[in-house]
Design a protein that fits this description.
Elements: H1 3-11, H2 20-32, H3 39-46, E1 50-52, E2 55-56, H4 59-77, H5 87-102, E3 138-140, E4 150-152, H6 153-164, E5 168-171, H7 178-190, H8 199-222, H9 237-250, E6 255-260, H10 265-271, H11 277-284, E7 303-309, E8 312-318, H12 328-343, E9 351-358, H13 359-364, H14 366-374, E10 386-391, H15 401-404, E11 421-425, H16 429-446, E12 450-455, H17 473-481, H18 485-495, H19 503-517, E13 525-526, H20 553-563, H21 574-587, H22 595-608, E14 612-617, E15 632-633, E16 640-641, E17 654-658, H23 664-676, E18 680-685, H24 696-703, H25 706-710, E19 717-721, H26 736-741, E20 749-751, H27 756-768, E21 775-779, E22 804-805, E23 818-822, H28 826-837, E24 842-847, E25 849-851, H29 855-862, E26 870-878, H30 884-894, E27 900-906, H31 917-932
Parallel strand pairs: 6-8, 6-9, 9-10, 10-12, 11-12, 14-17, 14-18, 18-19, 19-21, 20-21, 23-24, 23-26, 26-27
Antiparallel strand pairs: 1-2, 3-4, 5-11, 7-8, 7-13, 15-16, 20-25, 22-24
Helix pairs in contact: 1-4, 2-4, 2-5, 5-6, 8-10, 8-18, 8-19, 9-16, 12-23, 20-21, 20-22, 22-27, 23-24, 28-31
């Protein structure tokens, strides 16, 4: 604000003379929270002078400036014309602000009343120089959104306790945005802590509590001692979820994806998603269909259904998940992003992610932080999520806060993304439903994550076979005496005259009768309609299914030129310019294709056919090894251009994102995306292959076994740089052996391509073949520019990926005395050394797909070597790693009867590779010599 404007304010009297102390206190209040003062004051303080663009003036300087101006005004006036205001007015505003900041610490959140927080001095009258003697005095309430400008202090104090210290504890003052804070204040304070529900809404909530409690009691009596991870104590989760879904549909939502761990899962399946109780009972009884693969325990199962809402039917999908609790959350986000893309939903208005957490898990698992960190990025944003913590205040047997976390609340992790956090007492279902509606409205308004902490308890042990009193004696003394939420709420409704005597018992009996019938018990359940994600063409397909991937040379040349053309005004870096000049030569057939050209050409041909491609990784735009350059950065203004999205009008689109620095959450996200969208080619590239270690849980529990456990198809491709280049133990191996150890039931393919043409065909095959299983690729580093690793365009027209490649030199098969079998980069080391030696008695065979092992193709190659008795498997990896241990049974089955198979490679090692280049070179030379030297 300019001095003249400031002076005008002064002359309006409220900054003059004796009012100065009042203004200074208001200003301090404003610095704590801009929403704590009235609109007029906030506008004034917002306009205080700045030192520079985007830089706030120091608070002390601002204070001094209007203090000086006030003194000048005083000198001019000669006398103080305005009396000093009541300083208690400022104290009242500070009291209001204190409740907004810290009221949650005195909130009535724990149904068991065991959760004792330290007293907060800021919430006492005395702290603000106020007392009950002031209760009858009238004060301005500032920005307190209660519909009145003034109230007596006693009323203010009462309403503040109702709003902020009742069954809802709101944490939102950590949010930077004033608009978001004011929005929350309007919603919370507007109902004065007592949201009103119509009698029909209350009866609906009661029925849902009866269902939650009734199912658990039914299962407990019908299958005593069986693990079910009961919801008892957190029963309000059922009305919470149903209210959330109903409101989402009312606001235009079309799909909801839910991820949760074990606790309450069976209850959610039956009482929210509409799974038939009889089907659940059959699972408890051990009945199952023979075509369900290896299967999984019932509290890991997913489900899909449609749910009727005031805005139309909403499709529900509960994600399958393993026991590694929080890992399902990024999977859910990936599934949501795929559905958003399919529906053309850029903001998340049509698809809602809901994740349900345990209190110990959300605080303890790092994947939560990774997922939060992704939430506002281009590649992974989904328009915000609703995150619910079923906080039963004990993790397995750990209940002491100092043992479960280092923060006050288990939800504090959400503050990293400025998500509002609403703690709510699960024994007050109306407060739960109110908070749920508020949370969804905030998410839909601001497209940000929201956290609801459903503070409850666990009526049994971690599972029903546990005895919780052994480790939590005080808690479970209370639990045994504590009435269930249904009974508490029924009594409340009876006192309010909403419920007639006996109504509660009748509703309980009706629900039990419905369970006895075994039919669907969810009134909102609707038979699922067909959705745009059609998996039918991919179900039941095997690897040998026929498909057509041939493409003419003329078309390749045309597409190659298009993908190598860059607008003149888009100035490239000199090194990138050279890459594109070389690519244009390759497209015109003037030069053999290198790896980067062939890979990019594969993407270009697919988008030309209308395919959508999604590629993420920490350096995916450029390529870690400077080979891809699919996203071109203008050296003048940093604008980006993607030739792959400019092949022709009406083409498919490719999305390439440099990802956040995460493996676990990112791979889980891409898995979720690929399980929700069969028509897209979804790929994740590791910066170095060993980085995939960080995503091992996703590999083990989703990618390798999702189809066998849950019947979930997934076409995710992992590109993992792999090869021994002397870069030490951490950047040599993508841990090929781990993928081969997990290979069974034709669960995925593991490929080690060695030529540009091979990578071209492999990428196209993954999309065009009507099979949707993961592809694991050991991609090269040095081969990206190896003089022998080149291909002609003619090699790319066949449409065929060769699972195995025989000898390429013109050796006379009858002269061959030894056959070396290998995969990957070591092939070129062997080939060059053999040519250098002019050796003609050793043939080299490449296995380009290690799993499923190409027995027929290898048998065809071996026809020329039936006389050979000496076969060698050669690998760069140590003997206990790589393909040797996991695949040697395949190699032995492939060689002629009576022949011997030996090993040539590095000795067994705890580390993947040595750290010294000289030692690496010595080892590499030795393994090549061992493979080629006939003894």
């Amino acid at each position: 604000m300019q001095d003249g404007v400031m002076q005008a304010w002064l002359e309006s009297s409220h900054l003059a003379g004796g009012n100065m102390a009042y203004v200074e206190e208001l200003f301090e209040l404003y610095l704590d929270d801009p929403t704590a003062v009235g609109d007029e004051w906030r506008k004034f303080f917002d306009q205080l002078p700045r030192e520079g663009a985007g830089v706030d003036t120091k608070h002390s300087a601002v204070r001094e400036q209007f203090r000086t101006l006030a003194k000048n005004k005083l000198k001019q006036a000669g006398t103080v014309t305005a009396g000093a205001p009541d300083q208690k007015q400022v104290k009242v505003l500070q009291l209001i602000n204190a409740y907004r900041f810290r009221g949650h610490q005195h909130a009535n959140l724990d149904p068991l009343d065991l959760w004792k927080q330290e007293p907060v001095a800021d919430l006492s009258l005395e702290h603000h120089d106020l007392s009950k003697d002031d209760f009858d005095k009238e004060f301005n309430v500032g920005s307190l959104a209660v519909g009145q400008e003034t109230m007596k202090l006693g009323e203010i104090f009462e309403v503040l306790n109702n709003i902020y210290c009742g069954p809802i504890g709101a944490e939102y003052m950590h949010i930077v945005s004033t608009e978001e804070k004011r929005w929350i204040q309007q919603r919370l304070e507007g109902v004065r802590g007592r949201p009103e529900f119509k009698s029909e809404q209350q009866q609906k909530i009661l029925k849902e509590l009866i269902a939650a409690d009734g199912l658990e009691k039914y299962l407990g009596s019908k299958f005593p001692g069986a693990k079910r991870f009961s919801l008892e104590g957190g029963d309000s989760l059922i009305p919470m979820l149903k209210a959330l879904i109903s409101r989402a549909g009312e606001q235009g939502g079309k799909e909801v994806v839910i991820g949760m761990a074990h606790r309450g899962r069976l209850n959610v399946l039956v009482n929210v998603l509409g799974k038939k109780p009889q089907d659940l009972f059959d699972e408890f009884a051990g009945k199952h269909s023979n075509n369900k693969g290896s299967g999984d325990v019932k509290y890991h199962s997913g489900f899909s259904s449609d749910f009727a809402t005031p805005g139309g039917d909403v499709h529900l999908a509960l994600a399958f998940n393993p026991s590694h609790l929080e890992i399902v959350n990024p999977v859910v986000m990936g599934s949501v992003r795929a559905r958003m893309d399919r529906l053309g939903d850029k903001t998340g208005a049509k698809v809602l992610p809901i994740t349900i957490h345990g209190d110990s898990a959300i605080a303890g698992q790092g994947i939560v932080q990774e997922t939060f960190n992704m939430s506002q990025t281009r590649a992974y944003q989904v328009g915000g999520s609703i995150r619910i913590v079923v906080n039963n205040q004990v993790g397995f047997t750990t209940s002491k806060r100092e043992d479960t976390r280092s923060t006050q609340y288990c939800t504090d992790i959400a503050k990293m993304v400025q998500a509002p956090i609403f703690h709510v007492n699960a024994d007050d279902p109306e407060a739960v439903v109110f908070v749920t509606q508020l949370a969804l409205d905030f998410r839909n308004t601001f497209k940000r994550d929201v956290m609801i902490d459903l503070v409850c308890y666990r009526r049994h042990g971690h599972n029903e076979a546990d005895e919780p009193s052994a480790t939590q004696p005080l808690m479970y003394t209370k639990v045994k005496k504590h009435p269930v939420a249904r009974a508490i709420y029924a009594e409340r409704l009876s006192k309010a005259g909403v419920l007639e005597s006996g109504d509660d018992d009748q509703l309980v009996s009706d629900y039990r009768d419905a369970l006895d019938k075994g039919e669907i018990v969810v009134d909102e359940w609707r038979e699922m309609k067909s959705h745009s994600s059609d998996w039918t063409p991919y179900i039941g397909q095997e690897w040998d299914v026929e498909y057509d991937a041939k493409i003419s040379k003329q078309q390749l040349e045309k597409i190659g030129v298009a993908m190598s053309t860059v607008p003149k005004e888009h100035k490239l870096h000199s090194r990138v310019q050279k890459v594109y000049e070389e690519r244009m030569k390759m497209a015109n057939g003037e030069k053999a294709a290198d790896w980067g050209f062939a890979e990019t050409l594969a993407y270009a041909t697919l988008v030309d056919e209308g395919v959508h491609i999604r590629l993420t990784g920490q350096d995916s735009g450029r390529g870690t090894f400077f080979h891809r350059h699919a996203v071109l950065h203008n050296q003048k203004d940093a604008a980006t251009y993607m030739p792959l999205n400019n092949i022709r009008d009406g083409q498919g689109q490719i999305e390439i994102y440099d990802s956040v620095l995460s493996e676990a959450a990112v791979v889980a996200f891409e898995y979720g995306y690929a399980t929700a969208e069969p028509k897209s080619l979804v790929m994740w590239e590791a910066q170095f292959g060993d980085f995939v270690n960080g995503a091992q849980v996703v590999i083990d529990q989703f990618l390798s076994s999702g189809e066998q456990k849950w019947g979930r198809l997934c076409g995710l491709t992992l590109l993992l740089p792999h090869g021994y280049e002397g870069q030490g133990p951490e950047h040599s191996s993508a841990r090929l052996e781990r993928f081969l150890q997990l290979s069974a039931d034709h669960n995925w393919s593991v490929c080690v391509p060695t030529t540009p043409a091979q990578v071209f065909h492999m990428i196209r095959r993954q999309q065009l073949r009507p099979v949707r299983r993961p592809l694991i690729v050991m991609t090269p580093k040095s081969l990206l520019r190896h003089p022998l690793a080149v291909s002609e365009l003619d090699e790319m027209t066949t449409g065929t990926f060769q699972n195995a490649i025989g000898e390429i030199d013109s050796l006379a098969p009858k002269k061959v005395k030894r056959v070396v079998i290998c995969s990957g980069k070591v092939y070129y080391d062997l080939l060059q050394e053999r040519r250098k030696r002019e050796q003609e008695d050793v043939a080299i065979i490449r296995i380009e797909q290690l799993y499923p092992f190409p027995a027929e193709e290898v048998a065809e190659i071996m026809k020329d070597y039936q006389h050979v008795k000496d076969f060698v498997w050669c690998q760069e990896e140590p003997q206990n790693q790589g393909a040797w241990y996991s695949s040697q049974h395949n190699f032995r089955a492939a060689i002629p009867k009576g022949a011997e198979l030996t090993y040539a490679g590095r000795e067994a090692s705890a580390a993947p590779a040595v750290g010294y280049l000289s030692e690496h070179n010595k080892q590499q030379q030795k393994l090549v010599d061992d493979a080629l030297t006939i003894k």
